[in-house]
Design goal:
It is found in: Cell projection, Cilium. By secondary structure, the protein is an alpha+beta fold. The protein contains 40 helices and 63 strands. Helix content is about 35%, strand content about 25%. β31 and β32 form a beta hairpin.
């Protein structure tokens, strides 16, 4: 509490009492005078008394103060509003001892020392004396709201009297009554309409209760005589004072520092509900304010304690008071509980500010509020520094208004204006108005003052230059209707509402009314948003709306409380559209959406409790800044903005984290914080989060954001659907499309019809197949679409089976216009089909025949066929050129002539078969066979040839060509009957009667024929039976073949080795090798090797068989060595191509098996292929390549013993032709050796001798070009295949024999040997080009250049 002022003492005790209701004056009574002080402590009047002060009391409205003294019977009356003192003589001889004003009238009751009563009516100045009301001094009393008075007297009686002094009831008590109060005791029945319970303190120790009207069931007292006396513990001490509060509760203060709360309910009387001790030693003063606050004073230590009666155990304020200031005694409150005055024993009076009038205002983000009786504080909560500016005002304001840089305060009809700066303020002006001001609004240069149902709009500072017509204006104008009840002032507009429902916008810039709207009932509250273009209105019904002056639209505020006191719009840019409505102790949050798929909307965000006594002033970023009764600003976070409880920490599990993120995402979306939502969705990382963003974005017409969210979710269909809507500018059209995407088609139609393209609603209904709605829309919007819609509707009805409805709509869809010909044809087709379906056969047939489409005829024919009207169906099928179906229905009617006429157009085997059977019955076998052949019924053809025509050869031919099992069986039976068993066995096998064929072959000695015919079709059992037969018959070759098929490799090898090797076309050794290869048995392998080496019969076999064996056994190294031996023998014999092919085959096999190729094989293959290439290049007259290749071969001439002279001769000739004269001389000289000279061909002998004679001294040698090594890039002669630098064997070109280079690399697609791309690609353009290595055909498309040939450099060096 803050001390407001102090009144110095008068060396004696005083009595103090605040003015009732207004609390503007404090009456301080000393022994001979009464002083009146204003709320700020300045003395306004002093009343001198002729005698010692006796008693005083304020009238119920605080207008008159009555003062008594002991010198005479004159009553002093001081009228506060006129500050005038009156004297009224009671005209009695008795001393005046007590007085009290009525609660409901202007009557003053005055008691005397002898028990008389005077009732004075101040309004009429009439006095009614009642002599002898009591026998002794009247000491206390109280009025009730029925204008009855209760009196207490020292004669130990309490009386209830009327306003005229007539006694109504009277009771006696034990002791002298004191401190009489009136209230209502707590009871179960309905509360009384006026106070009926009288309470009084008896003898300082007990509290007496008297119910003047009621009775209790347990009491035998008659009505009006219920009396209860409450006694308390002695430890509490004497009763200092007490007070009624709440629903029949009493709070009693005791001298030993205790306070006790008791109930007056019949079942609770006598029970203490609570007890507290605010003062440890003594309690000297006790008073209760009209705001249910208790103030008490006590000593040791001396302090003032404030307690709220809603929680009497908990002290609100404890204010220590220095004992040097004097002993505290008396206390008095203002009715509003703001000011508490305390007097001391020496007459000093201290006045404290216990609570302030909750007075505050806000404009944009500036808040102004009352912090003391004459002090207003302003600050901006949105600024981090929060600098406060304190303004001293000349009065205690009743109202307050604030703008961005102007503030106004005032009381009654006067207003003071202040200019606000960052760190200072100054008073601009003050102004009086023609009536009491209800509220004042300031913004910019103007102030709007509401008084007497009018508004005066004027300049705040009269010194500001402005047009005279724009200095001030009164609203409403002469033509205005209704009283103005509320107003708001923004930077651009004055907005006010009337009790007739009018909402008016006055534009300050143009100084004229720009918008007027008439609401259906009176307007109570208005609150504009920060821009002033939207405002909330609350009407007399208690309903709330958001109003837009742009189009006079109203959006209802949902869940609005009945006691709405005000509305605050959020001033934060982040939360535009958020506002809160104020109710009793709570606010409700809302989000206003200017645009959504449903148009403008208002969403309810939830409610937030504030606690009692808080007045919301500002809403910023979801934070509500409130003013409490102590003049403090407190902020609350709205529940809609409060972060979900974050339980994230070290022990956080995934479920809790995900739940936190989900709740945060939902909150951010409710507040339209999409940036924050996007970040949360990324953290959440599931489809549901993205879907929520997308759905909210669609709701708010944010198409691009929705598309991005659906893309993150992976909903490609929605992404594509929204793509076409990005460019739509018409909001209604866009909303309609989005509603359609959400499946809200009726709403989508309504919105689309309000758009610039209402036909979009028709297109939507057509797309959705909502034909009834589409037809209704088409009649209003686009009649030319009715035929097409009717046709589409008919198609759907036809599909659903409603043929009558379909026929009707098809009929409606025909227009007969040339431009609609395509539509008419479709409708006529539908009419034809559905006419047949509903039984109008003739009409359907005629429509089908008239229709140009064969498909329509076919459809109608099919319908007729289903109705078993085969004749008509066949005719329509023929017209539709569906000859097979026509023939089918004619066949059902057995009209074979018509069928026969159509057979040339029929491919169905079934129809041909039916026709063939009919002709067979008629004996037309040739025609029947032709039909059976078309039907593919070869069995019937064979049967007719055998049984009816006797043409066996034809039957055999048909059976062999058709491979008909049943037909073959018929032929077999025929041959069996004629004793031709070999043929019978053959056809039994063809008919898959294998067992029967075997038995016949066995019996008739036709097993070889059986074995030959069955071939690969034999089963394992069949092969075993045949093998055993030939084993028994000593047919070793055949036995071995069939044992091999059975997988009995040992017996197969045994028989193959026993079979004669000279059998024509029967290479038994090759089969033996195959057997050993499949067996993979070392014993059989050694047995075969011994046979091939001649160990069995002393005759070694050809080495090729050994090579084949090693290949079959996959012993590639041994096979390679054998291949080299074989190739060497072929090479020595002059069979160079055979030797080359042998090495090539082995080379490829080793390469494919990733086995290293021996160098001997690599070099042998290279030499042989080089020699073979010579003839190719000689034919092409490319003597340079031929000479280089022959030089390579001649260098190893010893490996070609069969053709030494021929090779050397060719070398000399080609070198001579190529200009390699030195090489020609070298090899010519070699030919002149004695062992070769005689063998030189006579054709070339003279030339060679001449070369030798000329010698080589003057010969010029053509230098061999150098090309880089593909391994180390060292320059090498192009035909050198070994690199002296890196020691690698260099790959060579299969086309030229030159070594390969990396930049010109390709390979054969068949044998995969490398070649120079430039050479091979040129060669493949020639006709008949083939690979010179593997002899397979090549074409230009086979040859592609290899950019990175590194993996192909060492194919011959791969290792197993």
């Amino acid at each position: 509490m803050k001390r407001v002022f102090t009144i110095d003492g008068s060396n004696g005790p005083v009595r103090i009492q605040w003015q009732k209701r207004h609390g503007n004056f404090l009456a301080v009574a000393t022994s001979h005078r009464v002083q009146l002080y204003a709320r700020h402590g300045d003395m306004r009047r002093e009343i001198s008394l002729p005698g010692v002060f006796g008693y005083m009391d304020w009238q119920k409205d605080g207008d008159v103060l009555a003062v008594l003294h002991d010198r005479n019977t004159v009553i002093y009356l001081w009228e506060a509003h006129l500050q005038k003192l009156l004297q009224v003589d009671a005209n009695l001889k008795d001393q005046l001892t007590w007085c009290s004003w009525s609660k409901v009238s202007s009557h003053l009751a005055v008691g005397t020392s002898k028990g008389s009563l005077i009732v004075y009516n101040h309004q009429s100045s009439k006095k009614v004396p009642v002599i002898g009301k009591h026998s002794k001094r009247i000491t206390c009393g109280a009025w009730n709201s029925q204008n009855q008075i209760v009196l207490g007297s020292d004669d130990k009686t309490i009386s209830l009297n009327s306003v005229d002094g007539d006694e109504l009831k009277k009771i006696s008590v034990r002791l002298e009554p004191n401190n009489i109060r009136l209230s209502n005791m707590k009871r179960d029945a309905n509360k009384a309409l006026f106070e009926t319970s009288v309470s009084a303190v008896l003898g300082r120790r007990t509290l007496f209760l008297w119910d003047t009207e009621g009775s209790t069931p347990s009491s035998g007292d008659p009505p009006g005589q219920v009396q209860v006396e409450l006694a308390f513990q002695n430890a509490y001490g004497d009763i200092v004072d007490y007070a009624w509060y709440g629903d029949g509760y009493l709070c009693i203060a005791f001298s030993n520092g205790f306070t006790v709360v008791v109930s007056t309910h019949p079942t609770e009387i006598g029970h203490e509900l609570s007890q507290s001790r605010p003062h440890k030693n003594s309690l000297d003063g006790f008073v209760v304010s009209g705001a249910s606050k208790v103030a008490s004073v006590g000593s040791s230590p001396q302090q003032i304690t404030l307690v709220d009666l809603s929680d009497p155990k908990e002290a609100l304020v404890i204010l220590p008071v220095d004992e040097e200031m004097g002993r505290l005694e008396k206390m008095t409150w203002t009715d509003d509980g703001q000011l508490l005055s305390v007097s001391t024993a020496d007459g000093t009076v201290f006045t404290y500010l216990a609570s302030l009038t909750v007075l505050g205002a806000a404009c944009q983000t500036r808040v102004a509020y009352l912090t003391s009786l004459t002090e207003v504080t302003t600050f901006d909560p949105s600024q981090q520094d929060g600098t406060m500016l304190r303004i001293r005002v000349p009065v205690e304001p009743q109202f307050l208004g604030v703008g961005a840089d102007v503030m106004a305060v005032g009381m009654n009809n006067r207003v003071w204006f202040f200019e606000l700066h960052e760190d200072r303020w100054e008073e601009i002006s003050d102004r009086e108005y023609l009536g009491n001001v209800h509220c004042v609004k300031v913004c910019g240069d103007y102030a709007a003052v509401l008084f007497e149902d009018k508004i005066l709009l004027h300049l705040v500072d009269e010194c500001v230059e402005a047009e005279e017509s724009r200095e001030s204006r009164i609203f409403p104008g002469p033509a205005g209707k209704g009283a103005i009840v509320c107003c708001e002032l923004t930077q651009d507009f004055l907005i006010y509402g009337t009790d007739q429902g009018g909402i008016h916008y006055f534009y300050l810039e143009e100084w004229q009314l720009v918008s007027e709207y008439k609401h259906e009932v009176g307007v109570r509250l208005l609150a504009p948003d920060p821009s002033g273009t939207r405002l909330t209105l609350t009407d007399d019904k208690g309903d709330g709306y958001v109003y837009s002056p742009l189009d006079d639209s109203l959006v209802e505020i949902p869940n609005l409380g009945a006691g709405t006191k005000g509305v605050l719009w959020d001033q934060s840019p982040l939360d535009r559209g958020v506002f809160a409505t104020q109710e009793q102790n709570q606010v409700r949050g809302y989000m206003y959406l200017r645009e959504s798929i449903y148009g403008a909307q208002c969403e309810y965000l939830g409610e937030t409790s504030l606690g009692e006594g808080y007045k919301p002033l500002l809403l910023y970023g979801g934070e509500i800044w409130c003013l409490n009764a102590h003049g403090k600003i407190v902020s609350f976070q709205m529940m809609s903005h409060k972060q979900p409880e974050d339980t994230m920490g070290d022990n956080l599990n995934h479920f809790v984290e995900e739940q936190f993120l989900e709740e945060s995402l939902e909150q951010a979306l409710r507040l339209n914080r999409f940036r924050e939502s996007w970040s949360l969705a990324h953290s959440l990382n599931n489809k549901n989060g993205w879907r929520q963003i997308a759905e909210r974005s669609i709701y708010l017409l944010e198409v691009e954001l929705a598309q991005r969210a659906y893309r993150e979710e992976g909903e490609g269909g929605m992404v594509l659907s929204l793509e076409s809507l990005i460019s739509v500018e018409d909001k209604n059209l866009l909303a309609g499309h989005l509603l359609a995407l959400r499946g809200e088609f009726d709403s989508a139609q309504d919105v689309m019809l309000r758009s610039s393209q209402p036909q979009a609603a028709l297109s939507m209904r057509r797309d959705l197949l909502h034909w009834d709605q589409a037809l209704q829309l088409a009649r209003a919007l686009s009649p030319e679409q009715i035929p097409a819609i009717s046709r589409e509707y008919a198609q759907q009805l036809e599909f659903q089976g409603d043929y009558s409805g379909a026929l009707e709509n098809y009929d409606r869809g025909v227009t007969g216009r040339d431009e609609d010909r395509e539509n008419d044809l479709l409708c006529q087709a539908g009419m034809a089909r559905n006419s047949v379906r509903v039984g109008e056969i003739s009409r359907g047939e005629n429509l089908a025949r008239q229709h140009p489409s064969q498909l329509v005829k076919q459809e109608c024919a099919q319908l007729l066929e289903n109705l078993k009207l085969y004749g008509q169906a066949g005719q329509l099928y023929e017209e539709a050129r569906e000859f097979e179906r026509a023939a089918s229905v004619y066949a059902r009617l057995k009209q074979w002539n018509k069928v026969g006429n159509l057979l040339t157009q029929v491919t169905s085997p079934k129809i041909h078969a039916q026709y063939a059977k009919a002709k067979e019955v008629d004996g037309s076998y040739a025609e029947s066979i032709r039909a059976y052949e078309q039907a593919g019924d070869y069995e019937s053809i064979i049967r007719i040839n055998l049984e009816n025509l006797g043409t066996v050869e034809e039957a055999v031919r048909v059976a062999q060509e058709s491979e008909s099992h049943e037909g073959a069986k018929l032929v077999a039976r025929h041959y069996q009957r004629r004793g031709q068993f070999a043929e019978a066995v053959e056809f039994l096998v063809l008919s898959k009667c294998v067992d029967e064929a075997f038995q016949m072959a066995l019996q008739q000695n036709e097993m070889k024929r059986f074995a030959e015919i069955i071939g690969d079709r034999a089963s394992l059992e069949d092969n075993l039976r045949i093998a055993r037969y030939f084993d028994d018959s000593r047919e070793h070759y055949l036995a071995g073949v069939f044992y091999l098929r059975c997988g009995d490799h040992s017996k197969a090898l045994q028989h193959f080795l026993m079979a004669p090797t000279g059998l024509a076309d029967k290479d038994t050794i090759a089969l033996a090798i195959e057997t050993v290869g499949k067996a993979e048995n070392d014993g059989l392998t050694h047995q075969l090797i011994g046979f091939l080496m001649g160990e069995t019969d002393g005759e070694p076999k050809d080495a090729r068989y050994l090579f084949q064996l090693y290949m079959a056994l996959k012993q590639y190294r041994e096979a390679a060595r054998t291949a080299i031996i074989i190739a060497r023998e072929d090479q020595a014999a002059g069979n160079y191509r055979n030797a080359r092919d042998m090495l090539l085959k082995m080379y490829r096999e080793l390469r494919d098996k990733h086995i290293r190729v021996p160098n001997e094989m690599f070099n042998g293959l290279m030499l042989l292929h080089s020699y073979i290439l010579v003839r190719f290049h000689v034919k092409r007259k490319d003597h340079a390549k031929a000479a280089r290749l022959l030089i390579r071969v001649a260098g190893s001439i010893s490996k070609f013993p069969a053709h030494v002279v021929q090779i050397l001769t060719s070398t000399v000739i080609e070198c001579q032709r190529a200009g390699l004269k030195q090489s020609a001389f070298t090899y010519a000289a070699m030919l002149m050796r004695p062992e070769y000279r005689q063998l030189i061909d006579a054709k070339w002998k003279n030339n060679i001798e001449n070369i030798v004679r000329r010698g080589s001294e003057k010969d010029e040698q053509v230098n061999e070009p150098l090309l880089p090594c593909p391994f180390c890039h060292t320059s090498l002669p192009e035909y050198q295949l070994d690199c002296p630098q890196c020691k690698n064997n260099v790959p060579y070109c299969l086309q030229t024999g030159r070594h390969m280079i990396l930049e010109d690399w390709t390979r054969c697609p068949h044998c995969h040997f490398p070649a120079l791309f430039s050479e091979l690609s040129q060669y493949t353009n020639e006709e008949g080009a083939m690979c010179l290595m593997c002899s397979l055909a090549l074409s230009p498309r086979h040859v592609t250049k290899i950019d990175d040939p590194t993996p192909y450099l060492r194919p011959h060096e791969t290792i197993e």
